[in-house]
């Protein structure tokens, strides 16, 4: 029973997965972040390990236990996550970006706690590097899979991201649905490649992770 899902489809493959939110500091006590729970990324890490891969999980701050037999690299900001991702590049066959990376960070981090003053405060934010796009640009790039978190026009936005970021596959997530996505134990997604798309109906994230990796492993094998 324990080996029911040990397909070995990723035996010998080195898989790197980003997961969770990033936190972008404003000052020593405050940050900008998002509601990502990390559950999907952690489920993918577990499923990849079970499928025989050597797995590195690069995780932002989450409330989840480290998966067994997975190398966990804990990071905080998008800048840290990019550095950790680039450090794995030489030894990576498959890169899956499930992290909800903050798109912007405060332009400066105040050294001291920002004091309450006027009735309004203005923050200047600067764009963070795009981690998955940076990986996908590399000469010796791994097979690269991204996620697309969308509230509307899921299909069009997901296909556009697949192209723009030069990804091999993208997993689109409708985050406007309350029953799935951020924080939920279940998810429903569509997996796109340049060859077409596959729908995965709502199911437990652990089961979905296994099914997604089975589909990804098939594409990886034909390369
Ligand atoms: N991503 C990343 N680095 C960033 C932003 C996003 O690696 N700075 C990755 C995510 O991990 C995901 C994919 O890019 O795999 C798409 O993330 P998403 O937030 O849906 O897309 P964005 O390109 O940031 O566009 P937008 O938020 O405007 O929809
Ligand atoms: Ca984004």
Structural key phrases:
223 residues; alpha/beta; eight-stranded mixed beta sheet; two-stranded antiparallel ribbon; 5 helices; 29% strand; binds cytidine-5'-triphosphate; binds calcium ion; Coenzyme A biosynthesis bifunctional protein CoaBC; lyase; EC 4.1.1.36; flavoprotein
How would you describe the overall organization of this protein?
By secondary structure, this protein is α/β, with parallel strands linked by helices. It is 26% helix and 29% strand. The chain has five helices and twelve strands. Strand 2 and strand 3 form a beta hairpin. The longest helix has 18 residues. It starts with 13 loop residues before the first strand and ends with a helix. The mean pLDDT is 94. The site of cytidine-5'-triphosphate (CTP) has 15 residues, from helix 3 and strand 9. Cytidine-5'-triphosphate (CTP) binds next to helix 3 and strand 9.
Helix and strand element order = EEEHEEHEEEHEHEEEH
The number of strands is 12
Which runs of at least 5 residues are low in confidence (pLDDT < 50)? none
Annotation field: number of helices? 5
Widest sheet, order of strands: 5-4-1-6-9-10-11-12
Percent strand equals 25-35%
